Known about the structure:
- It is a single chain.
- This protein has nine helices and nine strands.
- The chain has 309 residues and is an alpha+beta fold.
- A four-stranded antiparallel β-sheet has the order 5-6-9-8, with helices on one face. It has a three-stranded antiparallel β-sheet with strand order 2-4-3. Strands 1-7 form a two-stranded parallel ribbon.
- β8 and β9 (216-221) form a beta hairpin.
- The longest helix has 19 residues, at 92-110.
- The radius of gyration is 39 Å and the shape is globular.
Amino acid sequence: MTVENNGPLPGSGSHRVPLSRQRRGVLQYLRGQSGSVTATALAQVCALHVNTVREHLDALVDDGLAARERSAPAGRGRPAWRYRARPPQESPAREYAGLAAVLAARIARTSADPRGDALAAGEDWGRVLTDGQEPSADPREARERLLGLLGEIGFAPEADAEAREVRLPRCPFVETAREHPGVICGVHEGLARAALGALGEDSQEIELLPFAEPGACRLHLDTNPAPDAGPAPGAAPVPGAGTPSDADPAPDAGAPSGAGPVSDSGPVPDAGPVPDTGPVSGAGPVPDTGPAPSAAPARQSGVEAGETP
């Protein structure tokens, strides 16, 4: 696999101190900066008011997650504060990044099926991370729980309302993934696959697209095709398959005038589809519908056709 862009920013696991969603977002943006930044500059990146960002930054400094320092003096006025993220000492990404690089290189070099082995390793990892958790009967809830797990690892997932299309702007092993994307990204796909299977009762397929866009990978959840909704409207079987149906209210389906002596004004023996089985008189098919005196068949047809008797 060829990596055409730098992909996600480095990620890290969540800190032990519970953070609000907005404060966690500010911390993630701060970790993505190459150096220290002012609150004003970070507010533009986060699309938040500068006072809100400054409040979160001060709280992160108090929690030991960020450091604060004065800018170099430049002109009049007091130099602005600059902030930078502290190294996440408790992050599993920091602790195991070196080990991941070594293992990925070995798998890529020695395995006959690097991606297959990477997927299997990721699935084992996903089962370990979800061990003991009760599965959810709601597929959407299962997907949201998976996103929470990926956030704890350091992917900072951004999903749509249904948690189906997910953007991963962070990666805890992005440096190694750039060198061995087939292995590292295979591990992450296997992790997501096994974790989603453990967190939900319904089967859902996933697809991870590494480095799918500049600055992020893409994760598609629940890629199963829609269930068969049955035959299309109008495709119901036709009753009788060509056999006449007595329940079919087709008023124009009868024979035209003169074509047969069918009459509804009197009892019709057997009521079968062939009206000529009734009694006949003389040489022509005269219906038994009344006291018509010895009318010739030709004359009878003329009356039915509208001629004057």
